Amino acid sequence: MGKQKLDEEQKTQERIKKRQKKLEKHLVICPHCGAKVLDHMTKCHVCGGVLVPRGYQPVDPKKMKLFKGIGWAIGIAAVIVFIVLVILYS
Which residues, at least 6 apart from 37, have a Cβ–Cβ distance to it below 8 Å? Predict the structure, then answer.
């Protein structure tokens, strides 16, 4: 029993180390206070300073409006087709 528990603890520790290693590549230093923060954060959890996420570019409002319009149009068209099919096959 003791050996099995030791093996489980060892496996758990290995999993933790593996996760930490994956997480480390996403850590950056806050330019305001020097704390380690994740690269996708927009605000430092220590000092509250504004951060620019790595690889992040905000969506252009015009494009977002276009995407929403297209989404609404597709949604409305799908509802109309569904209603027509229900009426035809009833």
Answer: 27, 28, 29, 30, 44, 45, 46, 51
Same domain for 75 and 43: no
Domain coverage including residue 78: 59-90
Q: Give the burial string for 30-55 (b: 16+ CB within 10 Å, else e).
A: beeeeeebeeebeebeeeeeebeeee
pLDDT digits (tens, 9 = 90+) for 2-35: 677 778 889 999 999 998 888 888 889 999 999 9
Same domain, 50 and 71: no
Max Cα separation, the chain?
70
pTM for this entry: 0.45
- Report residue 31 as tokens: 């330019």
